[in-house]
Design a protein that fits this description.
Elements lengths: L3 E12 L2 E12 L3 E6 L5 H9 L6 E6 L2 E2 L5 H8 L2 E4 L11 H12 L4 H14 L15 H13 L5 E5 L7 H18 L2 E5 L12 E6 L2 E6 L1 H6 L3 H10 L12 H18 L4 E6 L3 H8 L1 H16 L7 E4 L4 E6 L4 H14 L2 H4 L13
Parallel strand pairs: 3-8, 3-9, 6-7, 7-8
Antiparallel strand pairs: 1-2, 1-4, 4-5, 9-10, 11-13, 12-13
Helix pairs in contact: 3-4, 3-5, 6-11, 10-11
């Protein structure tokens, strides 16, 4: 059983006459990505700030590894604070400081490391997040996606146990939004930190989270696995999810997973009633992790977008195509038997060329495989 790292019990918080949290209770498990979703102004960021001590509750209890935060000594609180890192909405980079100085700041403030050791750690994080060559630039000279990477590098440079992400994809275009989600999951797997993400990105966030908590009317209305919230029959949950899901994924025009599952169910009905076959195909993009490592997350998401666009040109209007995880695509082909499905895949392999998907060769011998 996964060990609870943080527990919020019956948290209340008001600002004047505005009651934001009204008995919110939340469990965050060690080593997992927990995402908090909810409507605009529902109190997601307020809840997040309670975890790191930026805001204090009026009543209720916060437990860290089973110990009440309120009963900790100053020394214990200071030690605990060093385990946390926070990636603010809008990045909160200092305009008067270079990229290097922004990333080095937490080490300079929180540690007694020598400048040589600080440089080594900052260089390491810049290398991992594809930021080398930009150390002397200022935030005003960076793209939105690069600012996010600098903010993430700053959040990770102290090697925290817990990283809090407050709306990390705000203001990004769809490709870079997906790149940030992949980046969070990739580094969470590599470094093993516990991540808490406040977001409104549905269904994208379902692909990277182990736990989803929905904040509604000041309380955690639901907490569970991504598949559980998607399958919930609760009208409050369904109305919220449907309100945020677009009919087509904005990154590449694909149907949402929900829409593809609906198409699948419709095809099942036709099969049972009229004996009309259909095919379900899962395409697995095998080496996206290699591309992430060699070329970066934005390039990888662009490759995924190009591949999906090429696939969509080959399917009929009655067929459906959707993401089925971070590196899988699910197709539902109507009126298609097994032999026809195999012919379709053979045709895809012949007609979709690697040069159409990825513009450059990342290294000699690289092969994009599906």
């Amino acid at each position: 059983m996964t060990e609870p790292l943080i527990q919020l019990k019956d948290i209340y918080k008001s600002f004047g006459e505005q009651h934001v949290l009204k008995g919110a209770s939340l469990t965050i498990n060690k080593g997992e990505v927990t995402s908090i979703i909810g409507g605009s102004g529902s109190g997601k960021s307020v809840l997040l700030k309670h975890l790191v001590g930026l805001i204090h509750q009026e009543s209720g209890e916060i437990l860290i590894e089973g110990k009440p935060l309120g009963s900790m000594s100053k020394r214990e609180r200071k030690t605990l604070k060093q385990k946390f890192s926070y990636m603010f909405q809008g990045t909160a980079l200092f305009d008067s400081m270079t990229v290097y100085e922004n990333i080095a700041l937490p080490l300079m403030e929180k540690t007694k490391m020598s400048s040589t050791k600080i440089k080594k750690k900052v260089d390491e994080k810049m290398q991992q997040l594809e930021l080398h060559g930009s150390e002397n630039k200022y935030p005003s000279q960076l793209s939105g996606g690069m600012k996010k990477r600098v903010a993430l590098a700053r959040a990770l440079v102290t090697e925290p146990e817990i990283v809090l992400f407050d709306e990390p994809t705000t203001g990004l275009d769809p490709v870079r939004k997906n790149a940030v989600h992949n980046m969070i999951l990739d580094y969470q797997r590599k470094f093993g930190f516990t991540a808490v993400v406040v977001t409104h990105e549905i269904p994208d966030i379902f692909y990277i989270s182990q736990s989803i908590a929905m904040l509604y009317e000041g309380k955690i209305w639901f907490q569970g696995k991504p598949e559980q919230i998607q399958q919930s029959s609760d009208p409050v949950i369904q109305n919220f999810i449907h309100g945020l899901e677009s009919h087509n994924d904005e990154m590449n025009g694909m149907a949402t997973t929900k829409k593809t599952l609906q198409r699948y169910q419709e095809a099942m009905v036709h099969l049972e009633r009229h004996k009309i076959a259909f095919s379900l195909i899962i395409l697995n993009l095998n080496n996206l992790d290699e591309l992430n490592e060699k070329l970066g997350f934005v390039v990888t998401q662009t490759v995924l977008k190009n591949f999906v666009s090429a696939v969509r040109e080959k399917i009929n209007i009655t067929d459906s195509c959707s993401l089925y995880g971070l590196n899988k695509i699910m197709l539902v082909l109507s009126s298609t038997n097994l032999e026809q499905a195999r012919d379709f895949c053979t045709k895809l392999a012949k007609e979709i060329r690697g040069n159409d998907i990825i513009d450059i060769q990342p290294y000699p011998g690289f092969c994009f495989t599906v």
